[in-house]
Amino acid sequence: MKYMIAIYGNQELWESFSAEEFQKAIAEQDAFNHKFKETGELLGAYGTADAAQAKTVRVRNGAPAVTDGPYLETKEYLASWYLIDVENEQPAMT
Question: Where are the beta strands (DSSP E) in 1-94?
Fold first, then answer.
């Protein structure tokens, strides 16, 4: 069964990490990636641009219109997402 795992970002929280805490968080994410990659269960891992760099693209009269934003009213935003293919939901929840 395929599962999408969404990771939400919070710039204020990330900026509050010490260099050591930040490296620990990255190491934990790398361990997750390697675990599922080695078993062949990781189908994809995708990061998004920082919220400050976000753009909105809408098609108007057959042509794309690009604007800044969306401007978030929340502190959290979709930072990355993973697609894994595992036998049941348990591995997706670890």
Answer: 2-10, 42-47, 55-60, 63-68, 76-85
B/e letters for 6-27, b = 16+ CB within 10 Å, e = fewer, are: eeebeeeeeeeeeeeeeeeeee
- Per residue in 8-54, pLDDT (tens digit) is 888 888 889 999 999 999 999 899 899 999 999 999 999 887 777 77
3-state class of 5 per DSSP? strand
Contact 83, 3 (CB under 8 A): yes
Distance CA(23)–CA(29), nearest Å, equals 10
Domains of the chain are 2-92 (3.30.70.1060)
pLDDT digits (tens, 9 = 90+) for 53-86: 778 889 999 999 998 876 656 678 888 999 999 9
Distance between CA atoms of residues 44 and 61, nearest Å: 34
